[in-house]
Amino acid sequence: MRVELIAPHDHANGFGTMRDDLVRELQTLGVHIGRNISVPHVSLVMGVPNSLKAAATPNTVLFTMFESEKIPPTYVEWCQKAKIVVVPTRWCKRVFDAEAKINSVVVPLGVDTSIFTYRERAANAVFTVLNYNAFTYRKGFWSLLGAWERSLGGRKDAQLILKYAGDNNVTSMAEYDNIHVLKGKYTRGQLASLLYLADAFVFPSMGEGFGLPPIEAAATGLRPIIPDASGMSEFANEIGNIVATTTPVVAKYESFARSQVDLGHYLPVDKEDLARVLTEEYARWKDNPVTMSNLHVSKVVQEKYDIRRTAKQLLTVLQDAAN
Q: Domains in the chain, please, with CATH?
């Protein structure tokens, strides 16, 4: 099968690296896939729907997602033009089907479990909590900071590591003795090594189409602290240490700020409940610091959210689109 791939060029974020892994696995399955494919059977668009306009064939598969409960009007228009729309979660399916009046197909995203593998953790002298995508509004940074102040902010035997992919200046954490910032782009191997050093992983995002970071954490044996909301509801009850949500807030995106379109709401986590969960995890670590790894959640990822499984499911969709 020949598949034209239309996708963003960014390889530094979670979706970009997942896409690269997915292409590799499709190639392993015998698919000839790339940007400049002669006479493709199918065009696969991964990302924003209006990229469909570049497709060389009417047999289009749009693999997309959104993070709030409504999608922009431009998404509706292009989703209706695609032959098949693929989304990564049942939550996304409900949103896209209701908004665009379509019948989308769910193909869960996956991670490379040969990189993010299970490991028993050594006993840390300091309870270490890790967070990705720090300083980002939608990712729930301010809720996390408030919860940390309420729970472990004053403890010398606890630390919060904030991983931020950018290199530019961010909000100073100098006033917090037990909060540390790691800036810059990490390879997946470096991210896995960072996860092995952590006793807990917290990801209090207000909205996700899927949520790859909690899956990466779970693959290594960390039960992620997450809300059972948005796209993360796909797996929260199977792998998550669930934190409650609170009153919805209006969803905001810089790219749509001028158009003033209604994009629904985000669901923030409850700071008090997040503080409770952090305190409970700290107490569990204090009782026995060598029990922080969880084999069950790692097995769930291996069975349901491995990139090879994603590739096989997507290949079936591509074959359907070619017919």
A: 2-110+306-322 (3.40.50.2000), 127-304 (3.40.50.2000)
